[in-house]
Task: structure prediction
Amino acid sequence: MKGKIAFEEHMAIAETLEDTRSFAGDSGRWDDYVRQILDVGSERLETMDRTGIEYAIQSLNAPGVQGILDTREAIRVARKANDKLAEATIRHPRRFGAFAALPMQDPEAAAAELTRCVKELGFKGALVNGFTQKDVPDSAIYYDIPEYRPFWATVAELDVPFYLHPRMQIPAQARNYAGHPWLMSAPWGFAVETSIHALRLCGCGVFDDYPKLKIVIGHLGENIPFGLWRIDARMRFSRRGYRGKRPLGEYFLDNFVVTTSGNFNDPAFRCTLEVMGADKVFFSADYPFERMEDAADWYDATSVISEADRRKIGRENAIRLFKLNLD
Result:
């Protein structure tokens, strides 16, 4: 399918490049990752052309700003990254959009930077790499706490999506992974970490305050669609600390959308579609941590969807969500 739109696609700047090294592992691909994640130009565009991706929204690699302990440095790096992202959109306005990197260490500064990026730079929303560390390495701040309500008010006022992207849990808070570090990253821990954060947002009442908020999560919903019925069923018996006015599943289905990024699998796709509906599912790749070729070859050939839904999920839903003018 030509004309696809992708939006879990990553770049890096000098300050965040080393964050990517753990993904290379012992694969011997470090040099490839460096070249691909620093390039927001010819190689990326050539690969998009080969795979039928017309437009891609770029974002800063993980954990990026969320792993910076000093608040002033986080603000500086976020602004530098966003200015770099903006340069790419100016050079290639028909091919690239951008998500803002945000210094969530300071909710007020994060709101101000998002406002600058949307109103002055034309960004399509924000992508934040999970919880934020601040001041001390063992800290982990989640965005369901009351201090972030003014930030969410800004997101709602700007009417842009917020992409909640995975990051690895810090070792001091990951004793259940002891002796099995492979579990902490993309094979399992990413989905666990992001799904818990997403469910915390569902349970904190933020969607009662701002019912039009749209949160994006990748990898076909980080396992939540598969477990959503059971979550609601068991919460009939265990609601301690739950502050939502409606069942959790209603918030997830109303306020979340999901992408295919990095999960190119027909059975998982079928489950997600049945739970979410085709209007809430979007194509993405997760470049350069996944190959655009793998994402596109699977998506273009899958028999799970009709041709009408293939175009909807691959293109039309994103045009509507991000208010794009591509046609």
